[in-house]
Write a structure and sequence with these properties.
The protein has an 8-stranded mixed sheet, sandwiched between helices. It starts with a strand and ends with a helix. By secondary structure, it is an alpha/beta fold. It is globular, with a radius of gyration of 17 Å. It has 8 helices and 8 strands, in the order βββαβαβαβαααβαβα.
C-alpha cells in the first residue's frame, strides 16, 4: 500500500507491506544517501541492478511476519523537499507516527533499520524515543561532523538532486550545524531499545569498520555486533548482510 504524508513543507512518499496477520511487529526501513544523481522515477533512486530493491527487501521481512515500511526521505526519490539532516529526522518521526496508526501494527514491537546515513538518522530518532523496541544499523558511521565547507557541500547535494529549491538553505552555516546534532557516538548511549544489532561489512570502503566497535562500546551492553566478511557499503547489494538481519529478526520474533 502506497502512502503520502506531510513532513513540514515536504511530502514523504513510501509503501507499507503488512504481514499476513494483524498486530504484527513493524520495521521501518531508512535508506542511505543516494549513490547517484537523482532521477525522475516513481519508485525512487533505487537501481535494481545494484542488488535487491527496497520493495523486495520489504517483501522478505513481511514474509517473516514483520510488517514493513519503506519510504523516501525528503529530497530523494518520489518525496519532495530539500535535504538537511534535521529534516530527515522530522521525516522519520512523521513516518513513525503514520505507522503507529496502522491497525496492522503491534505498537509494542516497533523498530528501525537504517543503512549508512539512514542508520545515523535511525539512531538519532531512537535515542529520543521509548517506543522504538529494536534497532538495526548497517554501515553506520560512528561520528558525523559539521562540513568544513558548507557551500561546497550544498552544491554537491544540489548536483545530486537532493537540494532543488533556489535559495535553500537560507543560512548555509545553520544548515551545516545540523550535522552536529546527529552524530551517533553522542546519541547511541541514550537508547532504551530492547534489542540492538550493529552490522558492518569488513570490506566497506566508505565507512570504516572500526566505527561499529566504537558505537558498541557506548551503546547499551546488550547491543550485538555482526561483521559480515567481504561485504561492502551498500546494504541492498549484500545478500549475506540481508540474510544475517533476517535471521536475527527471526530469533526475536519467531513465528
Amino acid at each position: 500500500m502506497d502512502f503520502e504524508i506531510p513532513s513540514g513543507a515536504a511530502l514523504i512518499r513510501g509503501a507499507f507491506y503488512p504481514a499476513s496477520f494483524s498486530k504484527a511487529p513493524c520495521l521501518i526501513v531508512c535508506h542511505g544517501m543516494p549513490a547517484r544523481p537523482r532521477r525522475v522515477a516513481t519508485d525512487s533512486e533505487y537501481y535494481p541492478e545494484d542488488g535487491l530493491t527496497y520493495e523486495e527487501i520489504a517483501e522478505l521481512f513481511a514474509g517473516l511476519g514483520i510488517a514493513t515500511v519503506i519510504f523516501n526521505f525528503r529530497g530523494t526519490g518520489a518525496s519532495t523537499g530539500d535535504y538537511h539532516p534535521m529534516g530527515w529526522v522530522a521525516d522519520l518521526e512523521a513516518v513513525i507516527s503514520w505507522a503507529s496508526q496502522r491497525p496492522e501494527v503491534d505498537l509494542s514491537n516497533l523498530g528501525l533499520l537504517g543503512s549508512s546515513m539512514g542508520a545515523v538518522i535511525a539512531i538519532a530518532v531512537a535515542s529520543d524515543r521509548a517506543d522504538i523496541k529494536f534497532l538495526i544499523t548497517y554501515a553506520s558511521p560512528s561520528i558525523v561532523s559539521r562540513p568544513s565547507d558548507p557551500l561546497a557541500n550544498i552544491q554537491r547535494y544540489r548536483d545530486m538532486g537532493i537540494i532543488n529549491t533556489d535559495g535553500f538553505p537560507l543560512d548555509p552555516y545553520a544548515w551545516a550545524q545540523e550535522f552536529e546534532n546527529i552524530s551517533p557516538v553522542d546519541l547511541i548511549g541514550k537508547m532504551t531499545s530492547d534489542h540492538i544489532l550493529l552490522v558492518h561489512g569488513d570490506a566497506d570502503d566508505v565507512v570504516r569498520v572500526e566505527g561499529v566497535y566504537e558505537l558498541a562500546q557506548i551503546a547499551p551492553s546488550y547491543a550485538e555486533v555482526h561483521i559480515v566478511e567481504g561485504a561492502g557499503h551498500r546494504f541492498r547489494s549484500e545478500p549475506r548482510s540481508i540474510e544475517a538481519i533476517l535471521n536475527w529478526m527471526g530469533k526475536i520474533f519467531p513465528n
